[in-house]
Design brief:
This protein is mainly alpha-helical. It folds into 3 domains: about 230 residues, Hypothetical protein af1432, CATH 1.10.3210; about 140 residues, no CATH class; about 80 residues, no CATH class. The chain contains 21 helices and 2 strands. It has a two-stranded antiparallel sheet with strand order 1-2. Helix 18 crosses helix 20. The protein is globular and about 70 Å long.
């Protein structure tokens, strides 16, 4: 097979375009096949999206089903845009848009998510920086990139999945490192891109979100090389922008769907919030931030805080008329539509949910456009203003009526404590000289890999390699494996041989 003409199809390790024996496959389809065949992809079936399926007693999305739906939406967007001559020429000018690239990136975008979803991500980042001395800490997007380039072994000749430059570039939702690439770093822009702002409790730690650790800088540069001169070095490729937008759409729709099924989203509570704001929006807009905070429990105040937040963060698109129209549309579709019929598991109820999801997905996909000069906090591919506001309101419903619940906080605090204890137990095991020969083989391999990545004169090179190996090891576990491994390390499990599956 001749090397692909498209420079975006160049692979880092020089591998062929073969996938599952199909010599005729495009290199981008080969990437998709490699991702789906990866054990890291299968692992996502056991990783929390928001709540553990076992905890809900009902079928809710996990990271695998979420990734599949993101891929479905992303491909639909890419196919629609490339079929439209108005957008196709601009996309080519910006670096190209291939539906196979978009689908592959969407399938791989969550490979690095640790046990217990975003909670696990925050806990591992804190532990990595404060306990293990890793300046880069932990970030789920950077971990996904690390998996496809470093820690996922696909054969003796390659490290990583040996993906094309285009797919690796499309994975870079945040195409920068935490602190120092590119130069000047995007967190120093005014305003900075979405995700580049440091966390408010640790302004010196670098960007809150980033796409690669420093160990993968060389790979990031190689993946982005075909886009040099077409887009700014901190801007997403068009294909990454599609993947990111599809992720937002899927998240906004199926989280509402999940918690309607579970019975957490109640019509009365959601109606009270939205309708109170509609009745009193004039008064709520007029009061000070301090007065609004003092009335935090008053219906309507939470969504007014959202309106103000959108103006502070996204003045480039925030619009009061579009916001009010979005609240009304969500009220009609969600409060008077989906939530008006309590979910009872019947065929009729399932059909009702399916129609709700399909209607919203079609509405959002049809509202996608491409712009040549996007705002700093946007990508080249984005939703029309009306639908952008609707996504924000749907996400608000999820945050306000699910993530803010004390019962969810109770479980998450326990999960955070579990991860902290597991990291400490693994560190203690790794530091025990008498146990070196009995370390989990995977952990031993990860230490060697991390050590090889570091410069020989790196201060405390061995300590940093051990820290990164522990983070890589824990991040690859499912929720159930993390629980089972801590039980074994704590002496609570009596299932000697069956515990070995986590090692």
């Amino acid at each position: 097979m001749e090397p692909p003409a498209d420079p975006r199809a160049r692979r880092l390790f020089g591998g062929s375009a073969r996938a599952l024996g199909d010599l005729a496959a495009s290199p981008f389809r080969a990437d998709r096949d490699r991702i789906v065949a990866s054990p890291f992809f299968a692992r996502l079936n056991g990783v929390t999206q928001v709540v553990s399926p076992g905890g809900s007693g009902l079928l809710v999305h996990n990271r695998l089903t979420h990734s599949l739906k993101v891929a479905q939406v992303a491909r639909a967007i890419a196919e629609r845009l490339t079929a439209d001559g108005r957008h196709r020429d601009l996309l080519e000018k910006l670096g190209g848009c291939d539906p196979d690239v978009v689908e592959a990136a969407a399938l791989a975008h969550d490979l690095g998510h640790p046990p217990f979803g975003h909670l696990g991500e925050r806990v591992l980042d804190r532990l990595a920086r404060q306990r293990l001395g890793l300046t880069d800490g932990f970030e789920g997007n950077a971990q996904s990139y690390r998996i496809v380039t470093s820690t996922e072994i696909r054969g003796a000749a390659t490290t990583g999945l040996d993906l094309t430059a285009a797919v690796r570039a499309a994975l870079l939702k945040y195409p920068w490192t935490r602190l120092d690439h590119p130069d000047p770093h995007p967190r120093l822009l005014d305003p900075p891109p979405r995700g580049a702002t440091p966390p408010p409790d640790d302004p010196g730690s670098g960007s809150s979100k980033f796409g690669a650790y420093r160990t993968e800088i060389g790979d990031l540069r190689q993946a982005r090389e075909p886009f040099v001169g077409r887009i700014p070095d901190w801007q997403q490729t068009p294909e990454a922008s599609i993947m990111d937008t599809a992720d937002d759409i899927a998240y906004a729709i199926h989280d509402v769907e999940d918690f309607y099924r579970v019975g957490v989203l109640q019509q009365g509570a959601v109606a009270a919030e939205l309708m109170a704001w509609q009745r009193e929006s004039g008064h709520l807009r007029a009061i000070t931030d301090a007065a609004l905070a003092a009335a935090a429990r008053r219906p309507g105040s939470a969504i007014e805080r959202l309106r103000r937040q959108l103006h502070r963060k996204d003045a480039w698109i925030a619009d009061d008329e579009a916001f009010a129209a979005a609240v009304e549309h969500v009220r009609e579709e969600l409060v008077e539509g989906l939530l008006a019929m309590p979910f009872d598991g019947s065929i009729e109820a399932e059909q009702y949910v399916a129609r709700f999801s399909a209607r919203w997905t079609t509405r959002f996909v049809d509202a996608i456009t491409v712009v040549e000069q996007p705002a700093v906090r946007s990508g080249h591919v984005l939703l029309a203003p009306a639908q952008w506001h609707e996504v924000q309101v749907l996400k608000f419903v999820h945050h306000r009526f699910v993530l803010a619940r004390p019962d969810l906080a109770l479980h998450q605090r326990g999960q955070a404590r579990l991860l902290g204890t597991l990291v400490e137990a693994l560190l203690e095991w790794l530091l025990d000289p008498e146990e070196e020969s009995r370390l989990p083989r995977r952990l031993h391999d990860l230490v060697e890999l991390a050590e090889a990545e570091l410069h020989p004169r790196t201060p405390d090179r061995i300590g940093k390699a051990r820290g990164r190996a522990i983070v890589d090891f824990v991040a690859q576990l499912t929720d159930g494996q993390a629980v089972a491994m801590l039980d074994a390390l704590s002496g609570r499990s009596g299932a000697l041989w069956t515990d070995a599956f986590v090692l």
